[in-house]
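Exercise 7. Given the encoded structure of a 113-residue chain, write a plausible sequence.
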């Protein structure tokens, strides 16, 4: 093997390793997308892409979805946990999205399906 051939093989191996590392970083960051979990107190503020499925969520306040954010609920039972409906709301701003497939929305004493 000549010196030139070894250099080419070394460069090819280096580029293959670099590509594998870049792919691993992309795959890891794709699965690590930010998500805003429901709070235990206060309002739920969502600025990112948040998805929940097949669960019950106790909501102590209002739900706000801001521009660029989305909340997707699939078979989720939302239960608002405050004394009265009062000013508690869903507030979905311009360029935001709320999607609910199945599930229900309830207050501790009232249920809507």
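Solution.
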């Amino acid at each position: 093997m000549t010196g030139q051939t070894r250099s080419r093989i070394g460069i090819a191996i280096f580029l293959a390793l670099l590509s594998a590392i870049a792919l691993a970083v992309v795959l890891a960051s794709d699965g690590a997308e930010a998500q805003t979990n429901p709070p235990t107190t206060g309002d739920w503020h969502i600025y990112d892409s948040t998805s929940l499925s097949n669960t019950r969520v106790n909501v102590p306040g209002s739900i706000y979805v801001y521009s660029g954010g989305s909340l997707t609920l699939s078979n989720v039972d939302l239960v608002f946990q405050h004394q009265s409906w009062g000013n508690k709301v869903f507030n979905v701003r311009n360029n935001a999205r709320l999607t609910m497939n199945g599930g229900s929305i309830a207050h501790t004493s009232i249920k809507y399906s």
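Remark. Confidence is low (pLDDT under 50) at residues 27-32. Students should compare their own answers with the one above.
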